[in-house]
């Protein structure tokens, strides 16, 4: 929780909207989707040829991928597909 009377630049507030905007700008400037740009300009040049972007949450359960976990009632539990909805 951020105190009400903080002045500009005295505190940090995380915001996903700027990351979304940055991805959109990258797509426009790069002339391709964010996923394709990351794959062709970051992953392949450093040799990560088997790393894939999963566009649909259900892909986690249908392909060989790390599965999500949730922390509930003091223990970690296997996540379900509903975690993404």
UniProtKB/TrEMBL annotation:
Organism field: Dreissena polymorpha
Name this polypeptide is given: Beta-lactamase-related domain-containing protein
One protein family per Pfam: Beta-lactamase
Domain Beta-lactamase-related residue range list: 10-54
């Amino acid at each position: 929780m951020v105190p009400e009377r903080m002045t500009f630049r005295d505190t940090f507030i995380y915001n996903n909207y700027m990351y979304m905007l940055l991805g959109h700008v990258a797509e426009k400037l790069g002339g391709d989707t964010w996923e394709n740009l990351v794959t062709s300009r970051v992953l392949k040049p450093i040799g990560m040829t088997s790393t894939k972007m999963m566009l649909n949450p259900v892909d986690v359960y249908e392909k060989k991928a790390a599965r999500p976990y949730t922390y509930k009632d003091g223990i970690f539990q296997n996540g379900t597909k509903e975690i993404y909805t």
